[in-house]
Amino acid sequence: MADWDAVRFFLELARAKTLARAARRLRVDYTTVGRRVSAFERELGAKLFERTPDGFVLTDAGESIRAAAEQMEQSAVDVEQRALGADRRLSGTVRVAAAESAGHAVVLPAMRDLHQRHPEIRLHLQTGLARLDIARREADLALRFAPPESGDLRIRRLTSMGFALYASEDYLARHRPPAPGAGFAGHDAVLFDEGFRGAPAFASLTDSLRDARAAVRANSMLSLVEAVANGLGVGALTCCLGDADPRLRRVFPDLPVQRVDLWLVVHADVQRTGRIRALIAALEARCRKAAAVLRG
Amino acid sequence: MADWDAVRFFLELARAKTLARAARRLRVDYTTVGRRVSAFERELGAKLFERTPDGFVLTDAGESIRAAAEQMEQSAVDVEQRALGADRRLSGTVRVAAAESAGHAVVLPAMRDLHQRHPEIRLHLQTGLARLDIARREADLALRFAPPESGDLRIRRLTSMGFALYASEDYLARHRPPAPGAGFAGHDAVLFDEGFRGAPAFASLTDSLRDARAAVRANSMLSLVEAVANGLGVGALTCCLGDADPRLRRVFPDLPVQRVDLWLVVHADVQRTGRIRALIAALEARCRKAAAVLRG
DNA sequence: TGGAGACCATGCAATCCTGCATGGCATGGC
DNA sequence: GCCATGCCATGCAGGATTGCATGGTCTCCA
Description:
Two copies of one chain form a homodimer.
Chain A: H1 5-16, H2 19-26, H3 30-44, E1 49-52, E2 55-58, H4 60-85, E3 92-98, H5 100-117, E4 121-127, E5 141-144, E6 153-168, H6 169-174, E7 188-192, H7 200-207, E8 213-218, H8 221-229, E9 234-238, H9 239-244, E10 248-250, E11 258-267, H10 274-289, H11 291-295
Parallel strand pairs in A: 3-4, 3-5, 7-8, 7-9
Antiparallel strand pairs in A: 1-2, 5-11, 6-9, 6-10, 6-11
Chain B binds a DNA duplex through residues 18-20, 28-32, 34-36, 51, 53, 55.
């Protein structure tokens, strides 16, 4: 094959179905995707895609090379992983995928310590619940509230984080104080946009807000805190965040907090990479030192 | 990984050990190989090669990605093969015009490989020097020792084939050994009926037989080989044929063989049809694999 | 010892590729 | 109907990549 890179374009187009979407994921212009895929078809002498009204659909020929192409992708990832594993330098970028609360409470403080010793290590923190694929190397490291099981991933428990319901002082003054377990009918809720799927402990916390009206939905933790702090409603926050903000009060100060385990996920091959090892060590140190705060 | 194609360069350099050799195999300038491999190293953040006096040697990091890179290569081959296999037109007859020696040494072995994968492809091999007109579609493909220039034909060099003078052991025992360049007066020659017009290197070989008596003339290579093997005279044969027959000996074993380039000629617009592409690929694979044998 | 041959680094010019812009074509909401 | 949105084809200009040329190092061999 003249140009292996064409397979990368082929695969992405097969997944994205349109030139435009594939181009965005590949970070090139869509004309480039079209041209390279056409060239690939010409080279192979086979029509790989049917141009239908709803996008590019694989032909039989395209379908029949898909598996091999994915195999190739897997090997490409392997190449990358092993190269990364061989890299002992304490410099370069580490990409971390984490829930925003974990990013705030764990990753950034850990990074601050790490930066003192190794200023060459850069962090690319991708918060949000969108599950970046560690296996496909969309991130080097992930912090998750629910551990995935799969293949070559190394998983370890970092800490457990406390969550509780918070409201602003004046919100609590203006509303009839809720009773534990009695529901929040008549209350306003500040909700995270996407649910923390797969974290049962956390689910039980948000479930208790079910009866409340959703006054605010946001997909940014900062907005969430501000919403609660501004008296817009009751919200579930990590204790790190809630306790640190003087404007916030726990709704049930006497109840124990909800604990959710935080898991570190990393690909087996990159565990030896210098900068990644260093960051993992910093994360663990941070979790040890701040265990009390994190657990609430 | 930003550019999968870099892996192809990496692998080739790992095998070839020098930029120059790798570049020749990849059909690019060696500066390109150097630059792309360097870029790859930069991207991975790992030094893959040690630049030693005797070429590029894999570092530990390079060694550790080699297996995955080879895996990737295997998948690339799979992609290609399935694309070929998926083309529904991979059946029917391909008509090939070739000199008998090329047919024997290249076309038939290539066809054997091809037949494993695509048993529905049939070959119609028309040997002989009569120039079938590709342009007029008297054949789909031609293998020639002299490239025609004309219009819509696609021409590429397949390999170079070695020719040498052969005789049987007992013929050599019975005759005064000829001296290189001194002519063959008093010898018997086994000649191909029609001359290889247009292949100067070959002409020089047969020219040296000018002084010999023509003991046998034949227009079949099989007859030619048999004639030489039976001690009827000295004949110019491809090294493939001559070296493979235990009854034959090179007349001048110490002289380098005469090399004649073998050209593949195909009409531009049939280049894309599946069965023809498949055969071309098989021909090229055969020439690559058997290059040493073909060159003598 | 010196010259040929093989190899590699670097500067520069031509080429190829990419991205942008325009325009055409669908779909869907108002 | 009409506009907004999303998609793709094609022409064109800028820029990245390539190949070539020069110059240097090393080895081998006469």
